Amino acid sequence: MDNNIKEINNNIMEAVKNSNRDKENVELIAVSKTRTVEEMKKVVDLGLVKFGENRAQEFREKHEKFDDDIIWHFIGHLQRNKVKYLVGKVSLIHSVDSVRLAKAINKEAIKENLVQDVLLQFNISKEKSKYGFYEEDLTEIIKEIKDLKNLNAIGLMTMAPHTDNSEESREYFKGLRQLSVDINSQKIDNMNIRELSMGMTSDYKIAIQEGATMIRIGTAIFGERSY
Ligand SMILES: *Cc1c(COP(=O)(O)O)cnc(C)c1O
Q: Which residues on neighbouring strands pair with residue 29, listed in sequence order?
């Protein structure tokens, strides 16, 4: 795993250099779904402290086994009845894919007297198998969420379609970035879209070239998943 992480860091370095960006502006999130606590602790020893989980129950079980110095990200589709297990415990929910979910998170955050940072997930490719808002719904979404005081939308997230040719992901990453520019140009009160969560093992170099500020990597760190 040590070599895996070194290789990823080298690739990040190369991608930021190619695109005149700064390494400080790209956060590596280790996607630890399906991995054991032991595997994760090895990764912590190698210097990574940001983990991404995609199931609320799995997150809850793992969360208890780590100290507070771990930073948790939630990256999977979230049901409203599970929101209570995440709010205040994860630093960022990447996968807000409906207005109803946004409202449920806001409500729970009010209860816990905190503000929850989130990303809005967009289905740029419009694949039926994927979650996320459609770009056309942007105006409606903003209208619905801009006044949720305990929900702070700090960025956008997307997943590119599965492909063997990572170049094909580029247009979807460009699309997400353009969407962030469009939103910020509207100068909506209290909304500053500054994070772009995009890029996984197969396409993170392309994502960085297109402006990713967070990359979500599982396989390249831990090896192939068995399920
Ligand atoms: C599993 C997963 C990843 C990581 O995928 P790898 O190909 O293993 O790097 C990234 N993002 C999301 C939303 C995931 O579910």
A: 216
Q: Which of 12, 201, 216 to mutate to test the pocket of ligand 1 (most atoms within 8 A of CB)?
A: 216
Atom of ligand 1 nearest to the CA of 204: 9
Q: Token match 């110095």: residue?
A: 69
CA distance 197 to 95: 10
pLDDT tens digits, 48-106: 999 999 999 999 999 999 998 999 999 999 999 999 999 999 999 999 999 999 999 99
Cα 52 to Cα 8, 56, 94, 158, 212, distances in angstroms: 17, 11, 9, 15, 16
Distances (CA, A) of 45 to 1, 70, 80, 195: 11, 12, 34, 27
Q: How far apart are CA 195 and CA 154, in angstroms?
A: 6
Q: What is the pTM of this model?
A: 0.97
> Does the C-beta of 205 come closer than 6 Å to ligand 1?
no
Counted residue by residue, the chain has a size of 227
The separation between the first and the last C-alpha atoms of the chain, rounded to the nearest angstrom, is 19
Task: Output the DSSP codes for 152-169.
Answer: EEEEEE--PPP-S-GGGG
Mean pLDDT computed over 153-162: 97
Residue 203 has what DSSP assignment? T
Is 54 touching ligand 1 by the criterion CB < 6 Å? yes
Give yes or no for residue 33 CB within 6 A of ligand 1.
yes
